[in-house]
Amino acid sequence: MLSRRILRVKAFKVMYSCVEDPGLSLKEAVSRLDESLYAVRDLYVYMFSIILPLTEEARRRIEAARGKFNPTEEDLHPNMRFAENRTAALLAEDPDFKRYLQKSKLDWSQDDVLIRNLFDSIQAKPYYKAYMEAPETSLQAEAKFFRKMFEEEFEDNEELWKILEDRDIRWTDDLPYALGVCIRGIEAFAKADGRWTLPALFMDEKEDSRFVRKLLENTYARYDEYNKMISASVAGWESDRLFVTDLVLIAMGLAEAETFPEIPLRVTINEYVEISKYYSTPKSRSFVNGLLDALTKRLIEEGRIKKNN
To answer: How confident is the model at residue 8 (pLDDT cuts 50, 70, 90)?
Structure first.
């Protein structure tokens, strides 16, 4: 489920917190890392489960329309396609899905205003109209509809972001990635004839788990040494004028280059340059790239960085 990019981002955020709070022990840092990794999967399941309250909202509106004093023909004979979608029905009865929601205490019961507003937004979209008017439906057609919903309705929804922020501050950063997992998940759900499977946390359980923990541990252990190397390499700059985000990213790049001989050096440098675009300053890209390039060459000359390829 979690790519190497997101693993690096998670380790970076924990390492940044260690620099900001020097009293944070390595054991505490690793615990924070684990919590942060599992939080992404919780968010995926949470967002995937929004299919259920949205379906309930459709049913509620249909029943309310039927109960009008003077219902129209459309009120009495509504299009039930979304209200009776098979995806929601299968998820609602899936024992593993229900168990995960209950164990993690994930539900939308307190967010009825958001659900109503989301349903209004969905109903107004062309993809909803096309789904409702299609000559026939299937799990594959529903997956196509829900894919559009996950693509269009959530990432820029300020009301949703506030709810996520209140529940878990990490979730606002994780939302775009979790929505991508939802898109892949709904397609897999349809292909599996409505059987939901919890994705593994790591794409490669053994290697990726080892990678992210060793990356954090080795950066933590050598951070002061790397920080001195960086400061000494930047002529005309005082160490306290350097951005902490850049220092952490460069230190992590050096730790990765030393620790994992199987990862090509250019891959490592490119990854931390990319992360700097999102978490540091506009000038950080060239700064991180230049320092990592220079310092890794130095460590290669010293025999500290050795690559398998």
So the answer is: very high
The answer to whether 228 and 20 have CB atoms below 8 angstroms apart is no
Q: How many CB atoms lie within 10 A of CB 264?
A: 14
Kindly state the greatest CA–CA separation across the chain. 85
Residue 282, pLDDT > 90, answer: no
- For the chain, count helices (H), then strands (E): 15, 0
Tokens 């979730």, residue located = 171
What pLDDT sits at residue 236? 63
The values of phi and psi at residue 211, to 5°, are -60, -55
CA distance 219 to 91: 42
Could you read off the pLDDT of 50-81 as tens digits, one per residue?
A: 999 999 999 999 999 998 888 888 878 889 99
Report whether 4 contacts 211 (CB < 8 A).
Answer: yes
At 195 the three-state DSSP class reads coil
Question: Is residue 249 classed exposed, middle or buried when 0-12, 13-18 and 19+ CB atoms within 10 A define those classes?
Answer: buried
In order, the DSSP letters of 197-261 are -PPPSBSSHHHHHHHHHHHHHHHHHHHHHHHHHHHHHSTT--GGGS-HHHHHHHHHHHHHHHH-T
What is the pTM for the complete model shown? 0.93
Distance CA 31, CA 45 (A): 22
What mean pLDDT is predicted for residues 3-8? 97
